[in-house]
């Protein structure tokens, strides 16, 4: 019986390979699989790793230690970073110093995985982004080579890169050092950028993932409503415990509201003083009427520049549309699903037959859009292909 079985799940929710590991006997075996039915069931622990480009990893600061408050706040704290509807995502997190490290996954993906586990009678309590199978090195980007793609880990934030897109991806990283983990013989590469380290890839992935889990660096996506913890119990609390919890909640709510009211009054006074200081600083000749109501005065002054700002936003929107149109003409297999202009950003929802077409389109768009910042959101797969949202804004 294997002690661990680690299985990679791709963007189509199909297993790619499994790694069987027995740490006591130091036995390791990596083998391809093409269906959930082929996954080894006779193991003490099954761990899933999800294709890196299906998981968005980021960091955010939320001033609360309450799990309930954090889970309610995360979607809104990350709204500007995520292209799709915030309600369509599942958010998993762990604490790191004063910030939260967050993994964002489409609910369709996590629910699809859960259904497959149940359908095939597989017991699994852990699923992670596959970036945790690649060593994270400070001041460098780590690449792990596979047959047709690379896994990229940059301080525990990463993705999958098609092999054809490697050179373009490396160019975007400017002068950062790159470490390439591989078990293949490498031809001559640009040694000023690449440090090549030969490894048994299966051993590298297994040991690095288990170490990340042990040191609580990896984020288990099975959290919150999707929690599958072995320690979960269905025992109901007794009535005394429930009554005490309700009373404690009411008292806490009252204390928080009283404190917030007192704090709000102080903040209002401080804000009025800061508004007056700001008005006098930038408009020394402000009239007495303006000084009596600095907020209204600042608003009035800002309205005078609104026309200029609106004109600038329109120019940015037209420029972004031009770049999109020019690139679409060269990539006929990319379909535009929708276009939205919001907060000086152009969001374009695209549909392609596969990830390679999307990567090629994005690379071409980045080359063309010299004065624009191009970002790609979380990708989703459906029966028609792969959906992705590209966001463009002026530099």
Give your account of this protein's structure.
The chain has a five-stranded mixed beta sheet, with helices on one face. The chain has a five-stranded mixed beta sheet with strand order 11-10-9-12-13. Strands 14, 15, 16, 17 and 18 form a five-stranded antiparallel beta sheet that branches. The N and C termini lie far apart (56 Å). The longest helix has 44 residues. Helix 8 crosses helix 9. The protein has a domain of 88 residues: 2-Layer Sandwich (Gyrase A, domain 2), CATH 3.30.1360. By secondary structure, the chain is α+β, with helices and mostly antiparallel strands. A hairpin with a 2-residue loop joins strand 14 and strand 15. The protein has nine helices and 18 strands.
In short:
With 395 residues, the chain is an alpha+beta fold. It has helices at 67-77, 107-119, 166-172, 201-214, 239-282, 288-292, 294-303, 306-330, 355-368; strands at 2-9, 15-22, 27-32, 43-50, 55-60, 89-96, 99-106, 126-129, 140-145, 149-153, 158-162, 177-182, 194-198, 335-342, 345-352, 372-376, 380-382, 385-394.
The CATH architecture of the domain at 307-394 is 2-Layer Sandwich
State mean pLDDT (0 to 100 scale). Answer: 84
Report the total helices.
Answer: 9
- CATH top level of the domain at 307-394 is Alpha Beta
Sheet with the most strands: spatial strand order? 3-2-1-4-8
Q: Characterize the biggest β-sheet.
A: 5 strands, mixed
Shape field: globular
Strand content: 25-35%
Low-confidence stretches: 230-237
- CATH-level-4 superfamily name of the domain at 307-394: General secretion pathway protein M, EpsM
The level of helicity is 25-40%
The overall strand count is 18
N-to-C CA distance: 56 Å
Classify the secondary structure makeup into a structural class: alpha+beta
